[in-house]
Amino acid sequence: MLAFVQVLASGVAIGCVYGLVALSFVLIYKATETVSFMQGDLLMLGAFAALGLHAFAGWPLVAAAVAAVLAVGVLGAVLERAVLRRALGQPHLVAVLLTFGLGMMMRGGVASVPAAAQDMHRLPFAADTLAIGPLVLAASHLWVIAATVLLAGLLAAFFRHTRTGLALRACSEDARSAALMGIPVARMHTLAWALGAALAAVAGLLLAPITFVHLNMGFIALKAFPAAVLGGLTSLPGALVAGIFLGVAEALAGLALPEGTKDFVPYVLLLAALLLFPQGLGGARGRA
């Protein structure tokens, strides 16, 4: 029973990371109708940026983390203004390939640093364990869950109670009508890319104490994308819930099934869900 609870906590924690990356996919897609395949590379870049500022520049860890998230968010905005905006009016595949190419460039840039390409690093936080009677839980898992709950609450408040958040939602629902109402649609698109990039960076920071910081950590986006699809690619709450669901299912599969089976569980569940719910799990509830 204790092992089950530990595995469940681990699954919820990694599912929260899946959910945050899925949120970044959905946020960009809702606003721009573009699937961004550079989210995993932005995740990796955010983790390495925080690591570099803390370990090599001597910044306090909190300051390094905040600066890394802001820097990756600014990078997302710059890439939208300088590169991705040029794909407007082109076939959707053009923007998808642009994001793929930009992600490869980021990965190549980090790989050009020998220490980043060859070693695995750990950000020095949440490395302890928490004992609750006979139950021992990793502090990193609890930290990830708490941070995800807090971030989800902040995002909900932003989209429901701020003028900018409401304007971004309006653009996501109907950009043409939003423009007629005086909302600067182009700026909202830039904001969506910035928020999506920043969310990916946050996911990277939360993933760092679980899997270390390394060049291939961005591949987790390949498991987060099914969560976005399960949410219907239009539902922010659906993406987060689907991410947690996939994380738990993957962890339980690792406990009950042969080794290696858990790696394809998210895709099996995705295929099953698409057959049963073609609009995604969030489609029946409408858009977020």
UniProtKB/TrEMBL annotation:
Top-rank taxon: Bacteria
UniProt subcellular location: Cell membrane
InterPro entries: ABC_transp_permease, BCAA_transport_permease
Any GO BP annotation: amino acid transport
CDD domains listed in its UniProt record: TM_PBP1_LivH_like (cd06582)
Pfam families given in the database record: BPD_transp_2
Membrane topology, from the record: Multi-pass membrane protein
GO CC, alphabetical: plasma membrane
Sorted UniProt keywords: Amino-acid transport, Cell membrane, Membrane, Transmembrane, Transmembrane helix, Transport
MF terms in GO: transmembrane transporter activity
Transmembrane segments: 6-28, 59-79, 91-110, 130-159, 191-215, 235-257, 264-281
Family, as annotated: Belongs to the binding-protein-dependent transport system permease family. LivHM subfamily.
Protein name: Branched-chain amino acid ABC transporter permease
Lineage: Bacteria, Pseudomonadati, Pseudomonadota, Betaproteobacteria, Rhodocyclales
